[in-house]
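Pasting as-is:
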Amino acid sequence: GRTGQLAMKARRSAMGLFLLWLTFFITVVVMRGSIMEHWKITQPVTLWLFTLVILCSLVTPVFGGLLQGKQDFFWLGWTMMLNALLRVGVAALVIFFVPGGNTAAGFMAGVLSGSLIVLLILMWKTRDVWAGHGEAFGIAPFVREVTPLMIGFGACQLLFCFDTVIVGRFFKEPDTTYYASAGTLSRALMWLVLPLVVVPPVVLRVTA
């Protein structure tokens, strides 16, 4: 019954995360030379595509949460699986079928395409919530409620994704390539099976 407050919270959350990403992006711009040297990035476009992937990863949970709140479990499960299928699938298409795409930049372009498609689907399916009339809400209590959740989610994401970056920083080819390939496949497998764990129990609780 408080859809106006929910709409405003969703928009403010997305804007807050965008500002957080903007701070990160400015830091990358300032330190891009050092970053490319230490993390062995040979194509500058790879770094910029990576920053856009980070932006998609930050704001996607906002709209995914709205979809779960609507109890649209069909699209909740499909978007979770598409997050894996499109990341790997589009990246594979770019690498194998686009001339000159078999590079880190080509792979990152595929990952960005998959992430962006999922984000657009989530935004479209929840547009009736976040695009509606907004109402004022208590910002301080809201921040206190969501901060522990964001810390927990952020720690999980960091451990889930940062290992490949660490390997790329301290190891050399071909070890880094093998590790990145195995990591990509293992993450895709997790994204494919997580909906089977998350969606059915929720549906059972609701129907019960």
